[in-house]
Amino acid sequence: MQGRLPDAEQEEDDLDDAVRDQLVDEYTAALELEQLRAEISALKELVEQARRVRENANDSKLAALKKCLGEAQFMDLKDGRGKLLIFTEHRDTLGYVRDHLERWGFSTCEIHGGMNPHERKRAQEVFRTGAQVCCATEAAGEGINLQFCHLMINYDMPWNPTRLEQRLGRIHRIGQDRDVYAFNFVATESEEGQPIVEGRILHRLLEKLDQMNEALEGRVFDVIGEVLSLNDVNLPDMLRDAAYDPRRLDEYLDQIDRIDPAKLKEYEEATGIALARSHVDFSAFHRRNLEVEERRLMPRYVEAQFVAAAREVGLRIEPRADGLWRVEHVLADLRSERLRSVQKVGKAESSYRKITFHKHHLEQDVHVDAVLMGPGHPLYAAVDEKLNERLAELVGRVAFFIEPLCTDPYRIHFFEISIRGKDSKGNDVPLYGELVAVREERGHYEIIPSDILLNFAAHPHPPQKIEPTPLLPATDFLKASYQLECRARCQRERQHFAQVCREYLEKSFKARIDRAQERAMLLAAEAVTKPEFKLAADEARKYVDELQRARRERLDGLKRLEIARTGPVKHVGTAIVLAPDADTQAQLACLSDELDPNIRRQSEIAAEEKVIEALVAEGFPKDRIERVGHLKLGFDIRAHKIADEATGEVLVKRVEVKGRLRGQPVRLTTNEWYKAQQLAETYWLYVVWDPLGDSPELVRIHNPVAKLDHAKREIVAARFYEIPAEAIVAAGL
């Protein structure tokens, strides 16, 4: 028998192994290919099923949306007065809903997470001025104000209750003057009648919240997260677990039914929140609100400033026939990315067909598409930045003005002052800033209202040369007086704020630490006999340590808040106020009856006393009647009282007092007239005829701009509006 050589045998074995490996690889590849084919076939079938569902199925949720839009609350959507905000969870759903809304004839816009802040701001403006419906994802749930909208639909319900609070907070906020309606879409059953677990839970929760509304004093959607947390209800975990194990549905529904709103009150009492709420000084709050309203920037001044600034920087702004303004083309320089204003508040549009400076216009149906122009608007900010660049060299210069009743010239120096402090982390922060006017006359200095120039006319023939004005005495006076007063006030406010925070934090952390320590002790006791509790006990102990460390850090941070220090003082400019020259004197000859300052002051005091007596007789408490003429607010007396104890509604009168000889015309300064326009229904003109005589007579005129606009005569050289005596008598009540 012939044998094979060893090398030949080895070579044959290697060949057999290679063939076998190749066959295995081919078989494996065939299996994988077959599997891929099966998957592709299955995917094609799924795609085909999805196509058939989309074409033939009846989308019950979309049908519910269409039905909901037929409710009475949505009727004003049709005429453009109403606005609707629809929340979805995903952008795909947003697009799907928006497509159908537009098919149904609604104009829409969208806000989603793919937008930058400027794009969201622009979409918000489109929603306010044009679109009837805004479809939004969670990007609209925070950071933007939509109080012009009062209708909301949660097309998709969030599992996190805090997000539900944030959504409603976009429209249910300060400035909302209509009833807010929120509709929550929750599916409790499938098309086949099978229960939808998460829908059943959310539906039961919404029913429970509705029941708790009275107990929570209407704060349901402001505190829903806290209520659930205090009742040990973790909604996301509950929904997730119920989806995995639907058999526990009844258990979760019972847990929701056991939610007790009283636990929120107990928590607020333990942490000091309820105590703080019960000790709010509402009288001081009301007064502060009135002061804020009175000092709000007046639209007439904003309008005049913007129109003048626009023309200075080359922006063409034209009046419309309806009293508003238009800008056909915004210059490229005002839309440049290099502008700091563009980087901060965004880029202006290329044109604006309807601009207003008065917020009340936006409430009129005919002006619903108007754009409100003012500080913070991209175009306003760009124009302001360009104007400041152009006028930069004029900072610190001198200008001349006329005061009709001036006997001796004087200077008014304008300074910017600031007060600075630190936040809880030690970072420098501005606390307060103000433009301050210092009047200088014959070596005497006093602080006067910084808007005093609004009542003065520019000098028609200013001197060409003037001696340099020494600023150091005025600067030193300001630093040693008013700026220190501002610092002391800021420090008191900061210390009070820090003390309130300290008391709250002490109570809050004590309640939380006591609760955490109690839990840690119970778990530690269990861990002695049950080793499986050791990890939980250790975590509970760590949580107590974290709370104690957080308490120390927060309280240490409050110490930094108590510090306030003076910042730099910057000279802005000086006004030299002169008596009228010969030409101007002739224009002001009619004012000669007011040139005796002693008689004028006596008349004013007597008239104010008469008005205060009348206000007391009208039911205003004497301690709520204040003389505020020295503050140059545009009126002389503020009086307020509680009109309705149940609602806390406040009735306020801002009264401009004029004491005149019978038959004399009444003159209001430009500031007084503009303030009367701004405050309208709360502004009164009380004229006292013959206040120094034996039988003075009081005439009350409510909203004088509305009743006397036809009779006024503007005296430009003196910045007055003059009203004839006969018009006063005719308009009096």
Sum up the overall morphology in one term: globular
Query: What value does the Rg take, in angstroms?
Result: 36 Å
> Residue ranges: pLDDT <50 for 5 or more in a row?
none
**Secondary structural class:** alpha/beta
The percentage of residues in β strands lies in: 15-25%
Helical coverage, percent range: 40-55%
Termini separation = 142 Å
* Beta-strand segment tally: 24
The largest pleated sheet is described as:
7 strands, mixed
Oligomer category: single chain
Number of helices: 23
Mean pLDDT: 82
What are the defining features of this structure?
733 residues; alpha/beta; 7-stranded mixed beta sheet; 5-stranded parallel beta sheet; 24 strands; 46% helix; globular
Structural summary, described in words:
α6 (197-212) packs parallel to α9 and α17 (482-529) runs antiparallel to α18. The mean pLDDT is 82. The strands form 5 sheets. Strands 10, 11, 12, 13, 14, 15 and 16 form a 7-stranded mixed sheet that branches. A 5-stranded parallel sheet has the order 2-3-1-4-5, with helices on both faces. The radius of gyration is 36 Å and the shape is globular. The chain is α/β, with parallel strands linked by helices and 733 residues long. It is 46% helix and 18% strand. It is built from 23 helices and 24 strands.
